Amino acid sequence: MEKQISSSDQKSELKDLVRSLLRNTSDVSKATDFSTVKKSVKDAYNSDRSLIDRHGINRVNHALRTAIALCEMVSPDRNMIIATLVYELCSDESLPINRVRELWGEDVERMVNGLIKVSSLYGKQGVVKTDNFRRLLMTFAEDIRVIIIMIVERLSLMRAINHHPDEKFVTDTAFEANYLYAPLAHRLGLYKIKSELEDMSLKYTARETYTNIARELKETKVARDTYIADFISPLKAKLDATGLKYEIKGRTKSIYSIWNKLRKQQVELSGIYDLFAIRIILDVPLEREKAECWNVYSIVADMYTPNPARMKDWLSIPKSNGYESLHTTVKGQGNKWVEVQIRTRRMDLVAEKGLAAHWKYKGIKSEGDLDSWMNNIRDILETADGPMELMKNFKMDLYDKEVFVFTPRGDLYRLPLGASVLDFAFNIHSKLGCTCVGGKVNGRNRKLNYKLHSGDTVEITTAPGQMPKQDWLGFVVTSKARNKIRQTINERANRSAELGKELLQRRCKNRKIELDEAYLMRTIKKMGYKTVTDFYHAISDESIDVNDVIAQYELIEKADKKSDIERRSAEEFELIESPDRQETQSDDILIIGDNIKGINYRLSKCCNPIFGDDVFGFVSAEGVIKIHRNDCPNASHIRYKYPYRVIRTRWSGKVGSRFAATLKIIGNDDISIVTNITSIINKEKDVSLRNISIDSSDGIFSGFLIIGVSDTDSLNNIIKKIKTVKGIKDVQRSN
User: Fold this and answer.
1) How far is CA 257 from CA 161, 395, 654, in A?
2) Alpha-carbon distance 704 to 690, whole Å?
3) With contact defined as beta carbons under 8 Å apart, do 233 and 290 qualify?
4) Can you give the pLDDT at residue 641?
5) Residue 613: CA atoms inside 13 Å, Cβ hemisphere, count?
6) Which of 37, 150, 561, 593 could form a disulfide with 652 if both were Cys (CB 3.0 to 4.6 A apart)?
7) What is the C-alpha separation between 64 and 16, in angstroms, rounded?
8) What CA–CA distance (Å, rounded) separates 543 from 529?
9) CA dist 666 to 464, 479, 672, Å?
C-alpha cells in the first residue's frame, strides 16, 4: 500500500494516521481487525489502481482521517470503523462485497452497501440539486449508522479542501455540508460537528465575511477572556462552598452562529445578544442529576439577574435528539448578557457525541425517538412533490423548535413550534387527521387551527363525512400533515376529473360527435380553465353544464373549418414561389427578419424564439404564421397533428431589434448574488434587464430574469458569465 504513494509527505501522514487510529480503536476493535483491513487495502492497491480520486484526494488517507474523526467525535462501534475503512475498496470493486461478509460479518456488509449507494449518487452529480436527494435520504433511513459515517466523512472532506484549486467543487461541497449534513448532525445531537461544518461552509462560500468575523474575535479575545474570568471567579467561590465536583469553562459562539445573528439582527459584533456562554459540568450520580442541576441554577440566579424569557428547561423533557441541559441567560458585569448552560458529565457527553453516546449508558434509551424520526423521514420521502419541496420539508422538520403535548392517556408527543390541533391529529395517524373536525385542548373545545402549547392535553374529535380541504394547507406546519392533505386533495380531484371526462365522452358519443384533442384544448382554454383536471372536475361537480361545453366545442370547430380556405391561401402566398417548385415543397423555406416585408408572422409566446434559434413556422387558423423553436414543448404535437401546416423557416441576416429571453437561476440565498448578476447584465452592451423575480426559502433562492438580447450568441455569453458568480448553482434558459 505505501509503495504506491510517491510523496514522502503522504507516506509520513499515512504512518501518523495509522498510529492515531490504533490508539483510538484499541478499546473497541479485535486484535485481528486492523491486520485484515490493512491486508485488504494492500491487496487492492498492489494493482495499477490509483490511490488518488478525481479531486486529487488520497482515498486511503481520507478513509483513515474519517475513521479517526469518527472515534474522536462519535464513539462508534467496531463495525462502523471497519465499514468506513473499506467501503471505497468495494465501491471501485477492488474488494468483492461477499468478501466483506466473510472477513467481518453481515452487519459490516450491510453498512458498506449503504455507503456504496451514497457514493454512487455522488459519482453522478451533487445530490441536493436533483432527485438524487430523495434516494440519498432513503439510503440514510435504512441504517442510522450510515448517516453518522457520511456526516463525519463530509466533515473530514471539508477539513481537507481548504484552498483546493477547484473552486466549484469546494463551493458545492460546502453548500451540501451546510444544507444537508449540518442539519442531520443537529438532529442527531452532534453539535460539535454541526458547528464545524457550518463554520467551514461559511469560510468556503464567503471567505471575506468569515475572515472579518474571525479577525474581530481575535482582536477582542483578551478583553473577552478577561470578562469571562471575572464572571466565573465569584461563581466558582459559591460552587466550591457546596462541595460539588464540577468543571466550569467559558466560550464564544461559533463564527457561523455569530454571522447568523449579525445578519438577522443587523447589528455590530459588540451588539450581539449573549455572545458569551458559560458551561458548568457536574460530576454526580445518575439519580441526583436533576436535583443538583437545579441547585446550581439557584446559585447562578442568586448571583446574576436572569432573563425569564430566555430560560430553557431540557432536563424535565429532553430534546428529541437526547440533548439534556438547563440553560439560563443572566446579566453579568457591564450589563452584558451571558448564557449559562448547566449539565452533568453524562449529559455533556451526549451533547458532544449525540445519540450514539446513549449506547454507552445502560438504562438510557433513545431508540423510540430515533425510530419516530426515521418514520417521519420515510413519510416525507413518500409524499413530497419533487426535490425542492422535499428539501424544504426535510430541513424544516430537522430544525424546528418543539412543543410537547399529551393524549388523555398521558402519552407524550413532540411537535414543531406552531403546530395545530390538526397537526397533532395527523401525527397520531393519517386517517385521524383526514376526518378531524376539531379537538378538546385541556377540556375546552378548540378549532382545527388552534396552536398548541407545551403541556397541553389534546383529545381529537372526528366525523365520518369530514375530508381534507385546501385551506388546511394554510395553517398546518408539519410536513406529514401538509403532504397527506395535498395528496388526498389531488387524489379526490383526479377521481372527480375521471368522472367528468367519462360524462363528456358519453354525451359526445350519444350525439355522434368525435372529439378532436386540439379543438378540445382550445375549448378548455376559452372557457377559462388553467388545467384539464380543473375542467373535468368542473363538469363532474356540475359547475359547468356539459351541453355548454359541447356547444363551445362545435363553435370553435366550425370557425376553424370556415377559415380553411383562407388558411390555404396563406400557405400558397407564403410558400409557392413557382409552379415548378410545387412538387418539392419540402425544400421551401420561409425567410424571416426585420427586413422582410409582406409576410404576416409572429414569434410564439410558448417558447419565445430569438435570432439564432433553430425555428419552424406554423400556419394558424387566423392565417398568421407563428414561429416556434424546434425544441418548443409544443413542437412534437404540432408536427404530429398538423404536418401540412408546418413551414421550414430560417432567419434573414442580422435582426436589429432585441428579443425577450427568460433565464431560471438557482443559488445560495445571498443578497450580493442579485447585485452581482445585475452588475454583469448592466455592463453588457447588447443585453438589458427587463424584469427580475426572486423567491427565497431555507438558504436557497430561485428566480427568473427576463432579459433583452439581440441573438443566441449574446444569450449564451450572458449565461456563461452569470454562472461564474459565486453562489450560483444553476442557470438555464426557460420557455
Assistant:
1) 22, 17, 54
2) 11
3) no
4) 78
5) 26
6) 593
7) 10
8) 12
9) 44, 23, 14
pTM of the shown model = 0.54
Q: Which cell goes with 671? A: 443578497
Determine the Cα–Cα distance for residues 342 and 290; give it in Å rounded to an integer.
10
Helix, strand, coil percentages (3-state) for the chain, rounded to 5, are 55, 15, 25
Q: Which three cell numbers stand for residue 686?
A: 447588447
Helix (H, G, I), strand (E, B) or coil at 117: helix
* Cα dihedral 282/288/293/295 (nearest 10): -110
- 265 has a pLDDT exceeding 70: no
Measured between alpha carbons, how far is 386 from 392 in angstroms, rounded to an integer? Answer: 10
pLDDT of residue 307: 85
Q: Which residues are within 8 A (CB) of 406 and not within 5 positions of it... i.e. 6 or more apart?
A: 412, 413, 455, 456, 457, 458
Summarised one tens digit per residue, pLDDT across range 412-452 is 777 888 899 999 999 888 889 999 999 999 889 999 999 99
Do 442 and 491 touch, CB atoms closer than 8 A?
no
Single-letter amino acid, residue 616:
F
- What is the C-alpha separation between 102 and 429, in angstroms, rounded? 43
Instruction: State the Cα–Cα distance between residues 63 and 653, nearest whole angstrom.
Output: 59
Q: Which of 354, 313, 308 is nearest to 331 (CA)?
A: 308
Number of H-type helices and E-type strands within the chain: 28, 20
Q: Which residue has the cell 448592466?
A: 682
Distance CA(420)–CA(485), nearest Å, equals 14
Which cell numbers hold the place of 340?
449559562
- pLDDT (0 to 100) of residue 161: 92
CA distance 724 to 705: 16
> 440-456 burial by CB neighbour count: b if 16+ within 10 A, else e?
ebeeeebebebbbeeeb
- As a whole number of angstroms, the distance between CA 238 and CA 22 comes to 43
Sign of CA dihedral 217, 221, 226, 230: positive
Please check the confidence at residue 385 and state whether its pLDDT lies above 60.
no
Per the CB < 8 A criterion, the answer to whether 318 and 351 are in contact is: no
Averaged pLDDT, 257-267: 75
| % pLDDT > 70, the chain | 79
Give dist(CA 633, CA 617) in Å, integer. Answer: 15
670 DSSP β-pair partners: none
Distance CA(211)–CA(202), nearest Å, equals: 10
Phi, psi of 545 (to 5 degrees): -85, 130
Torsion sign, CA atoms 154, 160, 161, 165:
negative
The three-state secondary structure class of 398 is: helix
Other C-beta atoms closer than 10 Å to the C-beta of 398 total: 19
Amino acid type, 261: K
DSSP for 227-286? HHHHHHHHHHHHHHHHT--EEEEEEE--HHHHHHHHHHHT--GGG-TT-EEEEEEE---G
d(CA 114, CA 133): 15
Distance CA 641, CA 624 (A): 18
What's at 390, amino acid-wise? Answer: L
The three cell numbers locating residue 385 = 412533490
Nearest of 380, 363, 312, 362 to residue 341 by alpha carbon = 312
| 734 residue type, one letter | S
